[in-house]
Amino acid sequence: MPSDQKFDLGYLGGGQLARMSILAARPYGVSTLSLDPGEDTPAARVGKAIVGRLDRPEDIATLMRRCRRLTLENEFIPAEAILEAAKQADFDLANLVPGPGALATIQDKLSQRQAYQAAGVPSPHAVSLEDGGAQAKAEIGFPMVLKARFGGYDGKGTRYARTEAEFEQHADTWQKGGWLAEAFVPFVRELAVMVCVPENGPAACFPTMATEQRNHVCDVVYPCGSDGSKIAEAAVRAMGGIGLFGVELFELADGQLLVNEIAPRPHNTGHYTQNWGGTTQFEQHVRVALGLPIDTAPTGHPTSMANILGPDHGFDFKKARERLFATHPQAHLHWYGKAESRPGRKLGHINVAGGRDEALAARDAFFGV
Ligand SMILES: Nc1ncnc2c1ncn2[C@@H]1O[C@H](COP(=O)(O)OP(=O)(O)OP(=O)(O)O)[C@@H](O)[C@H]1O
Ligand SMILES: [Mg+2]
Asked: Which ligand is nearest to the CA of 218?
């Protein structure tokens, strides 16, 4: 492409979510460019990419100058860096999906909780720990969950304090600043809903899924028979803005739902749509990011997903792939092409028709369990 021509869609971030969205953009005839600090990223292996920092306005501005529309694949890009970059590049922020307002609210877990509360969307009560914990002890009590307000993922910024003694044990962590305390939710299940809010017209939800975490990382996702779309859409509306959002919910024993958190991007719990026979979350992401009409009622066959996390021991990917297809010829493998494997790192996932047991059996076959 000549250097004066612009790409249709730019991605802030070059991980597996950008990669899968870029792969969905290709059949639509959409040209893409991703920005990431790493050189050999999952996205760079399937599309054009530039290297630069995601918290550096100059680098974001470079992407803005070269793309008509922009989207993101993680919520950690500081909203202020995006605002500054837009000034530098004279980029109209109406062409960024989701917008910086929703992003700023979501990337601070405390402001996210406050927005739910203001909108009357059920969610655990949360307070800041900047006062040394007095308000948290008075309003929340124990058990309590401590969270980093910014930058947490895969449970990396989450601590449990069952008692005051445990709360004090974590003091070295939360006293550094930037932590919140929230009520511990005795959930029976965790659910998730992908919600798409277009520029014009009503929101569209994908089916509600059950999600199980192992060591705080999403492990398996399957159809759940409950409908969380109403609260999920209300939660997204409380953030404002347009785009594709993954909404994580807690389900209580009496069926009541609470919002845990929102991710303003494609989400692990929507990966099953890649093989359910209907519109995928990545197609929906590309469409909403470009301002194209979205699928207003995505439907497909019941499909489940199991994550493939980097094992502690070395393993032979090619052998694992062969084992999977030898025993589960109808399974779908999605490999992210990461430069290196680390224990617990998301390396890929497997989608299969059916429920939880089918997904877990396919993954067991992959690992030779
Ligand atoms: N208030 C709570 N009560 C009980 N369990 C909680 C609470 N908050 C979080 N958890 C548990 O910890 C997990 C991780 O928490 P959360 O989703 O807030 O963190 P994260 O690290 O940002 O997320 P992710 O794992 O989605 O990247 C949740 O999926 C849930 O299992
Ligand atoms: Mg979460």
From this structure: 1
Chain segment 3-43, per-residue pLDDT in tens: 568 999 999 999 999 999 999 999 999 999 999 999 999 99
Task: Identify the residues whose C-beta falls under 6 Å from ligand 1.
Answer: 124, 145, 147, 152-158, 182, 184-185, 190, 213, 216, 248, 260-261
> Where does 189-367 sit in CATH, by number?
3.30.470.20
- CA 136 to CA 124: how far, in whole Å? 12
Distance of CA 203 from the midpoint of ligand 1 (Å) = 25
Pocket of ligand 1, candidates 158, 215, 219, 259: which has the most ligand atoms within 8 Å of its Cβ, to mutate? 158
The CATH architecture annotation of domain 7-97 reads 3-Layer(aba) Sandwich (3.40)
Nearest alpha-carbon partner for 69 in 17, 20, 10: 10
**Domain 125-183's class?**
alpha beta
Q: Where are the domains of the chain?
A: 7-97, 125-183, 189-367
Tally Cβ neighbours within 10 Å of residue 141: 12
